[in-house]
Amino acid sequence: MNALFAAASPYTGMLPFADPAAPPAASTAQLIIAAVVSIVIIVALILWVKMHPFFALMLGSAVMAVAANMGFTDAFTSFSAGLGSTVGGVGVLIVLGAVIGRFLTESGAADEIVDTVLAKTPAKRLPWAMAFAAFIIGIPLFFEVGVVLLIPIVMLVAKRAKLPVILVGIPALAGLSALHGLVPPHPGPLIAIDALKADLGVTLALGLLVAIPTVIIAGPVMAKPMAKWVPIAASDKLLAPVDENRGRRPSFGIALSVVLMPVVLMLMMTVVKATGIGETGVGQVLVWLGTPLQALLITALYSMVVLGTTLGRTMSEVASETGAAFAPIASILLIVGAGGGFKQTLVDSGVGQVIGSGIAGSGMPLLIAGWLVAVVIRLATGSATVATITAAGIMAPLVGDLSSTHVALMVLAIGAGSVFLSHVNDAGFWLVKEYFGMTVGQTFKTWSLMECVVSVVGLIGVLLLGLVV
Questions:
Q1: Are the CB atoms for 341 and 80 separated by under 8 Å?
Q2: DSSP assignment of 114-125, as one string?
Q3: Which residue stretches of 68-125 are H helix?
Q4: CB 326 within 8 A of CB 355
């Protein structure tokens, strides 16, 4: 399990866990109070003081560290480590995704995809089309990779169809989030499968059964009222200005190949690992190519060629466009990194460990207990993967007498709980907020609420399956 987690962590922006057996430095009550107070301080600084989220998260992390008896001298140690890990992992993916997005939009490739989608899909069906697209490409993609690839498409679809961006964006996010929590090869489900000794094939099949209705309800269905609550238009912040004299557009096939290339590379890696040929020479090459960092790097270089030099641009112009992709994401990188720093402070304090252990010993039904343990750790730490691996470790001794299908359902219950209520200690919260140009309150009304719906509907699906399998 440790080897698997270590392999996953570079792409989830996480540091390896502190020893789960190590006792926290403070009492349970003190840890809970410290976590609540630090979160309240962050929200207050952002909403009322109007402080930039980076500094609010930094100060909140210091308060959490000191209140949890981590020491004044180490007040920023976990924050710095978490920030570095997040920027070094997720941050690199954001940068590469921004470059791909820049070439998709500046070259007209995104316009070509949008025009084709709009020509073949009635406007009222676009939320369903986005949910379906996100569901398909989200199977092999890490959540952050899917977000940075889909954002330019979401923005352009919303602008061209004159729809609120939430109406189009929430279905896409729901598709990615449900797959992230419920379906391998995402790191959370894989870690839980390993910890609970669940069957990969059974978990994958049941996970897809749960994910389909979950995406429908949390995506297109919930997007309608959310778009009324937060009727914002698509932002131009991350889209390159359109140059009417830029020359010919790439074809739909070329444009689609840029979007699908990382999907195909990662899917090949998944198939190679599943068939057991990953240790062969060819298999090792395919696994390397399909690792998210390599897959996005290859796609970024590919986009520079097929959406740059092939369309008549010089290498200097390609380099200029590449540089132009970096400026809009500087603030996003800092905020997402700070969110990762606050998360790491919470993880290192041991707050998730003490709360989760208490819930697991309460005597409630196992599937609900697994979900609730993951929910509490998710709320405390802000990380779905941290919640999954911690909850799986807590629940592992309790599933020995369950059937293989119910062990798989425990994996899914934990996965559903791990995505509950993304808020200020989750790097994903800030990622979505900044990309969509929303306020903190608007992000709670849309993204955070959607995550709650994904979690609760996912649990209901698990419980219903538990009655028949």
A1: yes
A2: HHHHHHHS-GGG
A3: 77-86, 92-106, 109-120
A4: no
Give percent of the chain with pLDDT exceeding 70. Answer: 88
Residue ranges of the domains in the chain? Answer: 2-468
Residue 362: burial class (beta carbons within 10 Å; 0-12, 13-18, 19+): exposed
What are the pLDDT digits (tens) for 183-194?
A: 876 767 877 887
Q: Please, are residues 440 and 58 in contact by the beta-carbon 8 Å criterion? A: no
Distance CA 10, CA 144 (A): 12
Q: Does residue 129 contact residue 114 with C-beta atoms inside 8 Å? A: no
Name the residue with higher pLDDT: 185 or 313.
313
Does the pLDDT value for residue 19 go beyond 50? no
Distances (CA, A) of 131 to 128, 136, 451: 5, 9, 15
Q: What is the pLDDT of residue 239?
A: 55
- Given a contact cutoff of 8 angstroms between Cβ atoms, the answer to whether 378 and 347 are in contact is no
The encoded tokens of residue 287 equal 């696994």
- Residue whose C-alpha is closest to residue 312's, from 239, 243, 246, 244: 246
Question: Positive or negative CA dihedral for 412, 11, 451, 61?
Answer: positive
Average pLDDT on 391-407 reads 81
* Residue written as token pair 């990380």: 383
Q: Which of 341, 332, 413 is nearest to 374 (CA)?
A: 413
Over residues 5-14, the pLDDT tens digits come to: 333 333 333 3
Q: Which of 98-112, 272-286, 369-383, 444-458 has the highest mean pLDDT?
A: 444-458
Mind giving me the DSSP string for 237-251?
A: TTSPPP-TTS-PPPP
Q: Which amino acid is at 50?
A: K
